[in-house]
Design brief:
Layout (H helix, E strand, L loop, with lengths): L5 E5 L3 H13 L3 E5 L2 H10 L4 E5 L7 H11 L5 E6 L3 H9 L4 E5 L3 H32 L9 H14 L5 E4 L6 H10 L8 E5 L5 H9 L16 H4 L4 E5 L6 H13 L1 E2 L8 E2 L3 E6 L3 H6 L5 H7 L2 E4 L10 H15 L7 E2 L1 H8 L6 H15 L4 E2 L1 H7 L10 H4 L7 H15 L4 H8 L3 H16 L1
Parallel strand pairs: 1-2, 1-3, 3-4, 4-5, 6-11, 6-12, 7-8, 8-11, 13-14
Antiparallel strand pairs: 9-10
């Protein structure tokens, strides 16, 4: 709005300053006057302005000096310079140094109002563009990843450290844990963020088409190739290529991918020559690639190429403290897609039940469940009965070993064994993770299980 715009008018002829102030004030702008370049620089340091209107030729400190000070103070602050006809060359030089526009004296007052309005509009559009970029970055960068548990905070730190590198990254995680979100965050936080991010799921395409999808093909290279295709490597040139579920790539294509990683060149199907590409590779898998290497189903040399940096995404069962916020977020997102739904919240007992569920489908499973509850819900608050109607994994309230022993004298060894078993169950049977949480060696868990099993058999 014009009434919120603050303009600084700088001219060492006070009558000129007053002549400009009146129509600008009448147009709804707030106007400050300065009668020297030195005074204008002081005012720029002490106040925020939206536009500066400054005479180019002034004694001691001229318009060029004011322009330099304004650019240093706020690089996006529009500066309009006023100059006599004979000093147009100086005005053009000022525009090369960052001035928004120049006005040649004598000028009409409506011309001044026109250019001030355009300068304010340009500033507004730049601000909107900056905000839009920030919103996009939040959705595709670290802001797209939700959760403040210790495993997620560790992951965020690793992403920030790895993003600026050019090294390939192998992202490991169970299905639905958010591997593509992590890949997009690595891209958005890195130096290639303004370049393309191209993703391909190696299981989503038939093996016969995956080669031409990755490397491209020429028209007529094979039956059905009615047009020439550049391929995803070329589309991602300068940016990032994300190969999801790399463990499902056929062996013959693994060899060709390795060659691209080694040489930095791709050859389209049916082409005689190669083309150089500059692509950062991110790959993801839910499979045990080390085991596949041992079994001969995945090339060892390709594995070592991809596994320069490895990031593990914790499954949802290992970060149950994130579930309440995740569920709240997904309910809010589902409401935007289903504005007629009365559902707006989850009952506390529902949230507690969600934290006890196994979540084999991880975050994607939680998101889908929240969508289902919002679509089918008939009450403002989802209760346990509604949750049970839509989810078979709702467990009975979990009893902590200490709570179970309340009011009883229980041998310490028995309580210790029950607590270890409880933590292992909380980790979905992952004994290595349970040992990390307990601060003990995983061999201790195996030894206790063998001992407890022997005692129970006697």
């Amino acid at each position: 709005m014009p009434s919120s715009a603050h303009i600084l008018v700088v001219d060492d002829h006070e009558e000129m300053g007053q002549m400009l102030k009146e129509p600008l004030t009448d147009a709804g702008y707030r106007v400050d006057l300065s009668s020297s370049g030195a005074d204008a620089i002081v005012q720029l340091r002490s106040r925020l302005y939206d536009v500066v209107l400054c005479d180019l030729r002034m004694e001691d400190v001229d318009g060029m000096d004011v322009l330099a000070a304004a650019r240093k103070h706020d690089p996006e602050l529009p500066v309009l310079l006023m100059t006599a006809f004979g000093a147009v060359e100086s005005a053009v030089e000022a525009m090369k140094r960052g001035a928004y526009h120049y006005l040649t004296k004598p000028f009409r007052l409506d011309e001044v109002l026109l250019h001030v309005g355009r300068a304010l509009e340009a500033r507004r559009l730049r601000a909107e563009h900056r905000d839009l970029k920030r919103q996009v970055a939040q959705r595709s960068g670290l802001g797209s990843l939700l959760g403040h548990s210790m495993p997620m905070r560790t992951l965020y730190e690793l992403i920030e450290r790895v993003a600026s590198s050019e090294a390939p990254v192998l992202i490991r995680g169970e299905s639905g844990s958010g591997k593509e979100l992590v890949a997009r965050a690595l891209h958005s936080e890195g130096a290639r963020s303004q370049q393309p991010f191209v993703a391909v799921n190696c299981t989503a395409l038939p093996h016969a088409l995956l080669e031409s999808e990755l490397f491209g093909h020429l028209k007529g290279a094979f039956s059905g190739a009615t047009t020439t295709r550049r391929g995803l490597f070329v589309e991602a040139d300068g940016g990032t290529l994300f190969l999801d579920e790399i463990g499902d790539m056929p062996p013959e294509l693994q060899a060709k991918l390795l060659r691209v990683l080694q040489d930095g060149e791709v050859r389209a199907v049916g082409a005689d020559g190669s083309r150089r590409v500059d692509v950062r590779i991110l790959a993801a898998t839910h499979q045990d690639l080390e085991a596949q290497v041992k079994e001969g189903r995945f090339r060892a040399d390709l594995f070592y190429r991809l596994n320069v940096v490895s990031l593990r995404i914790p499954p949802l069962r290992e970060r149950t403290e994130d579930i309440p916020k995740l569920a709240e977020h997904f309910v809010a997102q589902a409401r935007l897609r289903n504005p007629r739904s009365p559902v707006g919240a989850l009952a506390p007992e529902v949230v507690a039940a969600l934290t006890r569920m196994p979540w084999p489908g991880n975050v994607r499973e939680l998101e889908n469940l929240m969508e289902r509850l919002v679509v089918l819900g008939a009450q403002p608050t989802v209760d346990l009965s509604m949750l049970r109607l839509n989810c078979v994994d709702v467990a009975a309230p979990e009893v902590h070993p200490l709570a179970a022993a309340h009011g009883q004298v229980v041998p310490l060894r028995q309580l210790e064994g029950e607590y270890i078993a409880w933590v292992v169950a909380r980790c979905g049977g992952n004994k290595t993770r349970a040992a990390e949480l307990l601060g003990i060696d995983v061999s201790t868990i195996h030894r206790r299980e063998r001992t407890d099993s022997g005692i129970s058999q006697r």
